[in-house]
Amino acid sequence: MTTLDLTPDELLTTTRTVRKRLDLDKPVPMELIRECIEIALQAPSGSNRQTWHWLVITDAEKRAQIGEYYRLAVEEYVESSGAAGRLYADDPDRAPVQKRVGSSVAYLGERMGQVPVLVIPCLTAKSLPAGNQAGLWGSILPSAWSYMLAARARGLGTAWTTLHMKYENEVSELLGLPEEVRQTVLIPTAYTIGTDFKPAARQPLDEVLHVDSW
Fold this sequence. Notes:
The chain has 214 residues and is of the alpha+beta class. It contains 8 helices and 5 strands.
């Protein structure tokens, strides 16, 4: 499969959360999704257990139903004090960025069910221990990010979102998940409108870097 001409650093710094620039009309070949997941399976897995599973939803009715759950969750989220569009309202540099993020969240909230492919990486876990859950989720989240990187390299856009988890049980029932299989993230996947993504504005390194102690 042809990939974009990106260096590793360019790939890592331009894999954005894509919402408004997802092409909702162009079909995505399943073989392309399989290729991205095949790459994702090379990510770290705690003790090499590889207890991951990948749900790929292309059925229009199921996508629409997940989209409706997502819309309801977004509707509540955008009115909350922690919504992206409400953060850093007093910061003249960050406030405009946050408003754009909030706008794009609302946009995708109305269109999630129209995205051609929805991907949900899952992890088998009979229980969620009170202790080191970082080790548990660390066995699937790097793989999910690898999927998004592989998708970007192939001209696909993705978004990392967990808002649908407010309806985790309903989505699990819709998709027939066994009780011990846990959803981790919802990744809408589509071709992008243009591929000219750039690095995002981030906090300066020296504001967040701590060497040897806080």
